[in-house]
Structure formats: C-alpha cells, structure tokens
UniProtKB/TrEMBL annotation, chain A:
Protein name: NADH-quinone oxidoreductase subunit D
Organism domain of life: Bacteria
Family: Belongs to the complex I 49 kDa subunit family.
The reaction(s) this protein catalyses: a quinone + NADH + 5 H(+)(in) = a quinol + NAD(+) + 4 H(+)(out)
Localization terms from the record: Cell membrane
Organism: Aquirufa beregesia
SUPFAM superfamilies found in the cross-reference section: HydB/Nqo4-like
Membrane topology: Peripheral membrane protein
Gene: nuoD
Length: 411, 169
C-alpha cells in the first residue's frame, strides 16, 4: 500500500532525506491535533515522521466523550432520541429513525406505509447532506474552496426541509415511535420537488470541477488505500467498504422501512483509495436522488403514524382537549410506560456505514443496556495503517475522505 | 443467500465443541444467540471464521454487559458476528466472575476487535488477555473505576427532588 502511494506521487521520487549532517536518521514527533484546523473535529494523532514520511501514528480519542450509553440507562426510551442526534450530527435523521425502528422492533409496532416512505425520504436527504459535507470538504482539503460553497447551499436547503418536518436543523429529534410527528406539509413537498429539480445541476457542476481535475486526482488517487480483506477485517462498512470493492449495504441486504420497494444501485470502487471513496459517495448522492424521486412519486395515502397511543406522543392540541391524550402525554413524558423484556439488534445504513443499536430491556422504563454500533469508531482504528508511508498532506486528505465524525467517534 | 438455518449453526457448533458447550440457545427477531464457556470463545470464532459454509468473517460489534445479581457470572461479553455471504447474524455470549474478569482477546482474528475490547475494558473492566494495547480509550487515563458497571448510579444519590416514591415508581 505504502509503496504504491510512493510510486505514484511524483514528489516522493525526489529523495529529500539528508545524506549527511546532524539530521540523518532522525525521527520527528508531530502532534496533529487535538484541535487542528485541517482535521475537522477533535482528533489527536501523534505522528512519528521521517522527514515528510509518516512512520507511525498513535491515535487518542474520547475528547468529547459524553457517556451516552450510561445516560441512556437512566432515560426513558423516548428521551434517548435526542442522544442519537448528537452522534453523527451530519446525518441526524438517520440516527433518529434507526433508534425508532429498534424500539418499534422491541415493542412490535407496525408502522404504516406512508410513514415508512416519509422516513425513507428523510433518511436519503440526510445521506445527501452527509455526503455533500464530506465530499465538498475533501475538495477543500485539496484546495478547491469554490465547489464547497456552491454545494453547501443545498445542504442548507436540506436543513430547511428538516425544519419543515420537525422544527430543528442539526439535532433534529425527528419522528416518534410508530411514525412521524407530522405529515409532509405542502411547503415541504414543494421544497423536496425543488431540490429534486435543481440539485442535479449543481452536483453535475461540482463534479465537472473536481472529478477529472488533474490536481484533485493527483492528490487523491492511490492515497490512503485499503484492500477489501483488510477493510472487512477492520469492520469497515458504508461507502468506505464499498470503495474497497465490497457491495455490502444494509439497505439492500437487510431492507428496513420499505427499502425493498425502491430501485437503486450500489456503487463500488476497486482500490479503496481516497479517490474511490469520493466517487462512491458522489454516485450514492445520485442514487439517493433516485430513491427520493421514487418515494415522492409513489407516496402512499394513509396515516403518517401507527395507532400506538402508549408510545406515540399525542398532538399538543389533543392534550388540551382530550382526557386520554392528556393521560398518555403525561405517562410518555414522565417515562411511566414499561417496555417488554427482550433483546434486539437493529441496524440501518447510516451516512458512513452500518449504524447498529443493540438494546437489552429488562422490562423497565429505561433500557438495561444500550450499545451503539458507531461505524466511525470502528473504522477509524485503521487510520494509522492507511497512512503509514505517505506524507502528512496525504494523511489529512485520507482522514477527510473517511468521514470520521467526532461526535459519533466519542459518543 | 438465506440458505443457512439457525439449526445448522447449532448443529455445526455442537458437532465441534460438544453439546454441553453450547447452551442458552434463543432467537431474537431471527438472530440466533448462544452462550458458551470462556475457554471455547477463541477456538469457536476461529472455527466459525474458517467454516466452509457458515463463514462468520465479520465482527459487527462487541458489547460488554453487567448483571450484578448473577453471582459468579457478573460480567458478560457479547460478540455480534455477521456472515456477509449468507446474511446470517449470530450472537455469542460469555460470562465471567467480577473478581476475575479475564477473557482471551480475539484481536488475532479480527483487527477491529482492538478498539471494541478497549472500550469494554474501559467501561466494564473486562481484561482481555493478550490484547496488544489494553488501555482506556474514551475515558481519562487516571480514572480508577469502570463507569458502566451498575454500582455507579447515574445521578447523585443525595438529591431529594427525584425520589422514585414521589413519582409512584
């Protein structure tokens, strides 16, 4: 891997290591982080450098650890949704929906088709926002700032659609157990249609600027590559695994929320390098647009939430008018409703991989144990192996293309 | 795909390790779970990894758990395996006493187990023997307890405004 990176980078061929003098064979220790403008988040890497080449890297994680798993053991199920927002905050709705589906599995709630389709739309919008952030910032890290600002408008527009549905932008707390808290409003439908009509042009323009750009290709091809075997052994999932050539996607292997109704492709790469990861994400955005289009075209009529009064928070107007709604509102908010005993695992395809929830319930009002399978935490441990032998600037680009989110890494 | 049944996995494991080594067999939404003894875990994961049909070659997750009431089996480790080729999942559970929470490491088989085991050590104090770098990962290094154990309540026990009795609990 490292040899390949060295051969293809024209600068590495020039041997810059001193042949004589006081600096021969001297290794340097370089602190990259914890707060470094190029790492987009709080990551510390203690690098051992031989000249400009990385010999070894040691990671420190946990700078923003907030004990979510411990807090979850004290909170009613309904209040844990807000914890999931704060893991991968670039695609918070996927986390919310994944958590809702886990609890619905435990409770045995059947979600109506319309709610499932709305969920699919929101999850794909979240994936779009996630990939827009990752790919455009990767372009920034290689020096292309213009494209970043251009596509970022659309990420902002996606947040406006979130606002229509749940009132929040970043930490969305979207949906409830049993469905959505509100239906797609006419404004939301109009905005999604506008997105579907206008984002492709922007995306195309962004791609035409970056994809065949000589500078971008030189900076990303054969940089931070990982083979399919190593990637699987390291527990890679999501676009990073698909870039290495393995077509594992939770959406198609274990469909949830009616994903089996939609027609979409799973892009895979061949080398698992930074350029492949970029291209896989780029193609996934096109596929997300396809899925949203299909969901909007075939949006079923019917209720947008299940009839599960014990777990579904009633509308606020009802709480003031209706006795039962008031009782359920009180019981849900105070966390007075016990969940059945059981053990469930549910996983969804998050923005950067398989996001899993392992929930053990002992029949109480809170989970007995809740384990989040955070994809970013699991694949970030391969980072030293991926950057060994490359230069510091390649390490920055590699990290950027892995889409490691600090909030998810540290829970 | 889907051609491997849960019964087939049980049969294969019982054929290799004997019937008494596999117990606590249950199913949760289609996912098979079994419990085994600590000494079987590494050979079992190797066996499942190399099995020509089952091919459990992906370690999805590894979770620690604490049951203070189960004397002699207080701490548990749950291995979430996934056979991507057959699309079958399997949970293997092992339990160890809290006085001697020693479990052999599986980092030799799965590189991804490295941080997962460090996390279980950090939060539950489970010692993974043979782990290349068993130090705390998310908590500060000078912490002298394992915070996810059930004896550490989340909220300050001296607070009087949140007594369960007042809420009818």
């Amino acid at each position: 891997m490292s040899e390949v990176a060295l051969v293809n980078n024209p600068n590495v061929g020039l041997d810059k290591t001193p042949k004589s003098g006081p600096y021969v064979n001297e290794l340097t220790t370089l602190n990259l982080g914890p707060t470094h403008p190029a790492t987009h988040g709080i990551f510390q890497n203690i690098l051992t450098m031989d000249g400009e080449t990385i010999v070894d890297a040691e990671q420190t994680v946990g700078y923003i650890h907030r004990a979510f798993e411990k807090i979850a053991e004290r909170r009613p199920f309904y209040q844990i949704t807000t914890l999931t927002d704060r893991m991968n905050y670039c695609s918070a709705p996927i986390n919310n929906m994944g958590w809702h589906m886990t609890v619905e599995k435990l409770l045995g709630i059947e979600v109506p088709k319309r709610a499932q389709y709305i969920r699919v739309i929101m999850m794909e919008l979240a994936r779009l926002a996630d990939h827009i952030i990752c790919n455009s910032i990767l372009a920034v890290d290689t020096g292309a700032l213009t494209g970043f600002l251009y596509v970022y408008q659309w990420r902002e527009f996606i947040y406006e659609i979130y606002e229509e549905l749940c009132g929040a932008r970043l930490t969305t707390n979207m949906g409830r157990f049993g469905g959505m808290e509100r239906d797609l409003s006419p404004v939301a439908i109009e905005k999604i249609k506008k997105l579907l009509a206008e984002l492709p042009a922007a995306l195309k323009e962004f791609e035409s600027m970056v994809v065949r750009n000589r500078i971008f290709m030189d900076r990303t091809q054969n940089v931070g590559a990982i083979s399919a075997e190593r990637a699987l052994n390291y527990g890679f999932t999501g676009p990073n695994l698909r870039a290495a050539g393995v077509d594992y996607d939770v959406r198609s292997l274990n469909p949830y929320s009616s994903y089996e109704d939609f027609d979409f492709e799973i892009p895979v790469g061949t080398k698992g390098d930074t350029y492949d990861r970029f291209l896989v994400r780029e193609e996934e955005m096109w596929q997300s647009l396809r899925i949203i289009q299909q969901a909007m075209d075939n949006l079923p009529e019917g209720p947008y939430h299940a009839d599960a009064p014990h777990y579904y928070l009633p509308p606020k107007q009802e709480v003031y008018r209706n006795m039962e709604a008031l009782i359920y509102h009180f019981k849900i908010v105070m966390g007075e409703i016990d969940a059945p005993v059981g053990e469930v695992y549910h996983s969804v395809e998050g923005g950067n991989g398989e996001l899993g929830f392992y929930l053990v319930s002992d029949g109480g009002r809170t989970p007995y144990r809740l384990k989040f399978r955070r994809p970013g935490y699991i694949y970030y441990q391969a980072f030293p192996e991926m950057i060994k032998g490359s230069t510091l600037s390649d390490a920055i680009v590699t990290m950027s293309s892995m889409n490691v989110i600090a909030g998810e890494l540290d829970t | 795909m889907e051609n491997v049944s849960n019964q087939q996995i049980i049969d294969a494991l019982q054929g290799q390790f004997g019937e008494e080594a596999i117990y606590g067999i249950a199913e949760s939404h289609g996912i098979l779970q079994i419990t085994t003894e600590v000494e079987h875990i590494v050979p079992m994961l190797h066996f499942l990894y190399q099995h020509p049909v089952l091919k459990f070659q992906f370690l999805t997750d590894l979770a620690g758990i604490h049951f203070p009431e189960a004397k002699g089996q207080e701490l548990g480790v749950i291995y979430h395996l996934h056979s991507l080729e057959n699309n079958v999942r399997l949970w293997i559970k092992i339990y160890v006493p809290i006085e001697k929470p020693e479990v052999p490491t599986v980092t030799g088989l799965f590189a991804t187990a490295n941080w997962m085991e460090r996390e279980a050590f950090d939060f539950y104090g489970i010692i993974f023997e043979g782990h290349p770098n068993l130090i705390r990962i998310l908590n500060v290094e000078d912490m002298d307890y394992h915070p996810m154990r059930k004896e550490y309540p989340l909220e300050d026990a001296t607070r009087h405004d949140k007594i369960d009795e007042l809420f009818g609990r």
